[in-house]
Amino acid sequence: MFKSAIEQVRKANDVIRSIDDKPKEGERWLKKDEENRKRNVKSGNRLIDFNIEALDEPNREYLHKHFGKVFMRLLEKIKINSQQRWMVCYKLGGKYECSTLNLNNIGTLLHQLLKENFISEIEANAAGIVEMHYDFFLTNIKNLTEIKMYDLTEYEGLTMSDVKKGKPQKRPYRDESTLTERQKRLLNRLK
Fold first, then answer.
1. What domain of life does the UniProt record list for this protein's source (predicted)?
2. 71, 101, 186, 191 — which has fewest CB within 10 A?
C-alpha cells in the first residue's frame, strides 16, 4: 500500500547511513585523499529525494509520519561530522527554493520539526543540538511538494540550474594557480 513512500524513506536512510566516511553498498570511491579524509572523491548517488506531489494521500501521510526520524538521523550525522554540508532544494508554489544545511544551522531544522510535531520534545532534547528559534523552510513542511537534498561533499559547486535540470554534476576543482594577481587578491578577500 505504501510502496512508493517506503522506497523514498528507505533510500534516504541508506544515503544517511553511509555518511560516516564509509562508501555505501555498491558505491566506489574513486580516490582517497590522505591529507583530508573528509574530501574523499565518491562515485555513486548522494542525493535524498522526496517527491511528495507524486504520492497519493495514504503514501503522503506515511512519508510525513517518517520525516521526523529521517531528518533527525541526518541532523545527527551532520552534528558528528562537522564537514557535512547539504544543499536542500524544495518546491514551494511551483518554484525551487534552496538553503544549505550545515553544522551552523541544524538547529533551525530541529526547531521546525519540533514545532510542527514531527518529533517529540524528548527526541529534540536527546539530540544534543542547540535549537534555534526560526524555521529552516519558508513554509510548513507538509506544504512542500518536493524536497531534494544534495551532499555538497560529492556535488561540490552545485548550481541551481543543475538542480532545475535534474542533472547534478560534480564541478572540477578550480585551479587557482592560473588566476591573475588581481583575481587572487579578490578571492582572498572573499575567503
1. Eukaryota
2. 191
pTM of structure = 0.72
Res 111: pLDDT: 93
Instruction: Give the gyration radius of the chain's Cα atoms.
Output: 18
CA distance 110 to 107: 5
User: How close are the terminal C-alpha atoms of the chain, in Å?
Assistant: 51
Please give the tally of structural domains in the chain: 1
Tally: H helices and E strands in the chain: 6, 6
Q: Which of 104, 107, 94, 89 is nearest to 160 (CA)?
A: 89
Cell 523552510 belongs to which residue? 137
